[in-house]
Amino acid sequence: MSGERGVSESTFRGTKADGSRVEARVVDVFTFRNGKIAVKNAYRKDRPAF
Predict the structure, then answer these.
(1) For strand 36-46 and strand 5-15, is the pairing parallel, antiparallel, or unpaired?
(2) Neighbours of 7 (CB within 10 A)
(3) What is the per-residue pLDDT across 1-50, written as a single tens digit (0 to 9) for each?
(4) Which of 15, 26, 30, 41 has most Cβ atoms within 10 angstroms of its Cβ?
(5) Domain SnoaL-like spans what residues (predicted)?
């Protein structure tokens, strides 16, 4: 966290109903006001199916 902004990074992995696997990188960008989350924006980049 820096000032009123914070960032988290994660990897989402799952299996679809058809059995194929999915993976995506996720970045969340937070804006804080008075110590609480005021805004959360999520950005996702899907990786090719494997």
Answers:
(1) unpaired
(2) 10
(3) 557 999 999 999 999 999 989 999 999 999 999 989 999 999 999 887 66
(4) 30
(5) 2-38
Domain limits at 11?
5-46
Dump strand ranges (E) for the chain: 5-15, 21-33, 36-46
- For residue 21 the two structure tokens come to 């696997």
Structure tokens at 36: 């609480």
**Number of domains, the chain:** 1
| Alpha-carbon gap, residue 40 to 9, rounded angstroms | 13
CA-CA distance, 11 to 46, in Å (whole number)?
A: 10
Would you say 10 and 24 are in contact if contact means Cβ atoms under 8 Å apart?
no
